[in-house]
Each structure stands twice: as C-alpha cells, then as structure tokens.
Amino acid sequence: MTELSRRRSLAPGDYILKFRVPIGLVLVAITMFMGYWAAHVRIATRFENFFPSNHPDTLLYRRYHIHYGGAQTLAVMLRVKHGDIFNYSTLQKIEDITRAVNILPGVDHNEVFSLASYRVAFAKAVPGALISTFYMYPRIPQNQQQLSELKHNVMVYREPVAGLITYDNKGALITASFNEGALDYKQLFDQIVTIVY
Predict the structure, then answer these.
(1) What residue ranges do the domains of the chain occupy?
(2) pLDDT along the chain (197 residues), means of 10
(3) DSSP symbol at 78
C-alpha cells in the first residue's frame, strides 16, 4: 500500500478528528432537539380505541360525538337520608358541587346539568308570552317563601328536571360531559375525588 492510498483511506477519520468540536456540537444539538420532542410525546389512548374501528356504532360515535357529547360523562348523585333535598344545606351542596364540576379540566361548560345549572329552566306561560325561568340559578333560595316556590316549581314543571331529581325528592344528580381531546384522566380523577369527599 502506498503512502498516498493510506492517506486517502484515513481521510474520513482525519476529517472527523479535525472537526470533532463542531461535529460534536451538531450531534449534541440534534440529541437535545430529539429529546425535547420525545419528552412531549403523549402516551395515552382514547375511549373509542377500545372498540373495533369499522364497527357501525364506533363510526356513529365518531360522527356525532362533537355535537352531542362524548362517552365521557360524569354523574354525581347527592342523596339525603332524612326528609328531602329542599332544605338550605342540601341545596347549597348541590350548588357547590355544580360549581366544582364546572371547573374540572376538560369539562364542556354547556353540558353541565343540575338543579343549580343555568342550562336547566322551565317555561311559564303568561298572557302573550312564554317566560323561561331558572329553577335555582344564580343562587339558592334565601328564605322559606323562595324555598317553597322552588319545591312548587319542581313539582309543577317536573319534566326538565325529571332526570336530575329523584321522584321521592331525596336525591339530586349533577351531570357533565367532557371534551375528549383536552382530558388528563389522572388530574380529572384526583379532582373528582376531592369533590366527592
């Protein structure tokens, strides 16, 4: 082997050694760039991935879940042991739970329903108009007259709250739907546990 051919065979090695600092910096920069994006990879599954992707029910869910809410629905039941829910402390708890559910991460604010929700109302017919009236929004009844009026309204206009209050008036339901793309299940579970306890 001649001296010229030996030099040519070492040329890539010589090149790497000669420019080792810039090459090292480029490799470190590439590694940091890839490490940054690797740390932001979200490893999770969506609820619909548990079902066959071409099944008609799954396709129906994909088509309409944006408009009608997804499969992620929370239902919190508050039930009294004695009497009914029409007392100040129970109604305050319903309002407090409704507010706590409404600030959960990923909640669809238009899909939070309870007796204290602004989304739950009934229509009163008066001469020349229909007036939409909230049951208990924006605050709970402040005196016995308002409390009696609330109970009367629930009895007379039962249909809008039929799924939110039990027929024996001992239980109240707070429901919420969630935006699937914005859910952090661990954080959501931890916050629900604090609401329950």
Answers:
(1) 3-39, 44-69, 72-196
(2) 58 81 94 92 73 85 70 88 93 95 89 91 87 89 92 91 91 88 79 89
(3) E
